[in-house]
């Protein structure tokens, strides 16, 4: 098996951290999303949505979408559990991962995609007022996340989970999106220092 | 347990169809998202993101995000499986559900939220050029979905799954979003007629 990725892009990083937490090593193959390389026919055949990462299994099956790739590894390598345990625990991790992804992560990504000059040839059309509206959304999502982390060690509860990975990658993605670090949010900063210090954060 | 929902809103409908496919009956409580009722303190305490549906368990645990609610019921009532079976099958359902949700479903919702006059008091700010850009995205997502359904009985493969529910709800949501039905896409229409004829579609 192998993973096709663009190093340093946020979604491939989610999978890289997930695998590092599990202690799984998978060969990586680099393709540069910024150059339009994902629009080549051979890559589109693997993922018609033309995005990285893609996990290619030995039988040729191609799995894209980072959460789907992580789900595959959770199934074949359950320890440590990163999608929660028990019916309620699994639902809570899914809920928190979605809240962070559909909220903060997507808002930061929208600022990057719709305002950064480097994205003009990939995000067509760039919609400047949409990028601006998402700057406000980033703030409201950070406020909600800070309230959560005031009462919980990790995003989804007492244990580190995929929701922490999504939140960590979202916050680190604020820098290329030219958004100021969330230093005014004390609970986020407490949590951020902890999760950033895990060896997986540099995977 | 009970589910708090707004009848006819797309995300509560995803859960309603899912439960009908499982044969599970859960009491429903109506709150009208259009009136701003979800911004009341009692509801915000259940879901700080102020969205329906929310599943409230007997111990008071509140699960929001429709896919997380569905995941809970998949765990406690596995048959028939709607999130796939086996590591590859589960990853493929997750991949397809995400492709449809982050693609078609979100694009249709963005058209509705950013262009419909009825949404002006809820979607602040409405970004008209973003709504317009999503009309084009709906078309490209339909084209990809049509290609998939040319080669597959259901969205995620040979079996009906949560990905079909997400796609069905997205397509039915095109009407309130004032988008024309996808009649030019023959494979989507073949599939649409089949899934619409299931008893769960009217749940």
TrEMBL record, chains A, B:
Domain GST C-terminal positions: 86-203
Domain GST N-terminal: 1-81
Transferase is among the record's keywords: yes
Protein origin, superkingdom: Bacteria
Keyword Transferase (UniProt): yes
Gene3D superfamilies: 1.20.1050.10, Glutaredoxin
InterPro entries given in the database record: Glutathione-S-Trfase_C-like (IPR010987), Glutathione-S-Trfase_C_sf (IPR036282), Glutathione_S-Trfase (IPR040079), Glutathione_S-Trfase_N (IPR004045), GST_C (IPR004046), Gtt2-like_C (IPR034346), Gtt2-like_N (IPR034345), Thioredoxin-like_sf (IPR036249)
A GO molecular-function annotation: transferase activity
SUPFAM superfamilies to which the protein is assigned, alphabetical: GST C-terminal domain-like, Thioredoxin-like
Pfam families on file: GST_C, GST_N_2
Signal peptide residues on this chain, from the entry's feature table: none
Keywords: Transferase
Full protein name: Glutathione S-transferase
Organism field: Hyphomicrobium denitrificans 1NES1
């Amino acid at each position: 098996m192998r993973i096709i990725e663009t190093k340093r892009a946020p979604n491939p990083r989610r999978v890289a951290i997930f695998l590092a937490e599990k202690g799984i090593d998978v060969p990586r193959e680099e393709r540069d999303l910024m150059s339009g390389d994902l629009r080549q026919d051979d890559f589109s055949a693997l993922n018609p949505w033309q995005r990285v990462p893609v996990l290619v299994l030995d039988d040729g099956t191609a799995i894209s979408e980072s959460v789907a790739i992580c789900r595959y590894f959770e199934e074949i390598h359950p320890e440590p559990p990163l999608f929660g345990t028990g019916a309620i625990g699994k639902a809570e991790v899914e809920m928190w991962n979605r809240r962070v992804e559909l909220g903060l992560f997507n808002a930061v990504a929208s600022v990057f995609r719709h305002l950064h000059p480097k994205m003009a040839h990939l995000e067509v059309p760039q919609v400047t007022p949409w990028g601006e509206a998402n700057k406000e959304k980033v703030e409201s999502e950070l406020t909600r996340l800070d309230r959560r982390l005031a009462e919980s060690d990790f995003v989804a509860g007492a244990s580190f989970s995929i929701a922490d990975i999504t939140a960590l990658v979202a916050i680190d993605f604020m820098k290329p999106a030219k958004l100021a670090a969330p230093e005014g949010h004390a609970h986020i900063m407490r949590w951020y220092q902890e999760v950033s210090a895990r060896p997986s954060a540099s995977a």
